[in-house]
Amino acid sequence: MKGRLAGLAGVLVLLVGWSALAAFGVAGGTIPSPLRVVSTMFTDGWALYGPNFAITARGALLGFLWGNLLALGLAVLVMLVPRVEPLATQLAILSYCTPLVALGPIILVVFGGRTPTVFLAAMYCFFTTMVGAVAGLRSADSTSIDLIRAYGGGRWQELYRVRAIAALPSIFAALKIAAPSAVLGAIIGEYLGGVDSGIGVALTAAQTAYNVPRTWGMALAAAALAGLGYLLVAALARVVTPWTKEVAR
Fold it and tell me: Least crowded by CB within 10 Å, which of 125, 165, 179, 200?
C-alpha cells in the first residue's frame, strides 16, 4: 500500500510540475498542458493511436521474444559449456556498446521492411537478459548442486533441476527491464524509415508538422506501451515466482 501511495504521489508531483511549466511558457511554449495533450489525444482518437500502437507493439514483442530467446540460450550454453563464456561475454558487451542506431540503416538496406524495428528491439533486450540469466543461474544453492553431483548428475541435471529454478527471479527482473527497452528499440527502428506506420512514424510526422500536442500525445502513447510491457512481465513474474513475494514480506 505504501508503495502504491508513493507511486501516486510521484505521478501527482509530475503532473503539477508539468502544468506549471506549461503555464509559465517554459521552452517557448513547446510544453503544452496535460489537459491540452489529453484533449488532443481524444480528438485524434483510436483511428490514429490504435493502428500505430498495435504495429509498434507487434514489432516490440517480436524483438522482445527473439532477443530474450537468444540471451537465454546463450546463458544456458555458458552453464553447459563454460569454455564459451569469454566469447559469450564479448558478444554481450559488443551488443551493449555498439551504437545500434548506426546498425539500423544497414539492416534497412539489406533486409528492408520492418526488420530494423524487430532487430533493434531484440538488441536492446539482449545484454540485460543475458547478464541477469547468467547471474541467476550461478546463484543456485551450492548444497543442492553438490547433491546432484553426488548422485552422478551432470551439468544438464544441475541446470534443469536446480539452476533454472534458482535463476527465475533474476531472469524476470531482467525481463522487466527488457520489456520497455524493446519498445524503445522498436520506436527507434521506425524512426529510421522504411515503414509507413507505427508510433515512431506518427511521432516524426507530428514533429514535422509542428503539432506539439500530438507530439506529446504520441510520446505518452510510447510511455504507456513501455509501461504496459513492464506490468505484464511483472504480473507473470508474480505468478511464476510466488516465493519471491513471500521472501520480500
Answer: 165
